[in-house]
Design a protein that fits this description.
By secondary structure, this protein is mainly α. The chain has 3 helices and no strands.
Length: 66
Amino acid sequence: MSPLERLLTEAIPIRPEPAERPAPATPGGYWTQAEQDAHWTTLCATVGTPDAQRPTRHATAHQTAA
């Protein structure tokens, strides 16, 4: 086999397919409500305030700007 034939039989490197983009975030973020609740419960238990009230979301200046 000649050098040219060996070269032609080599695999040609190709660019991999682009990674799949994540789904767009929901208004609450990427976490489901159940995941957010579980995280809040674990966080409160960890810091020693198991009955702490969860904060509410407020519109930011960017969201209210017209």
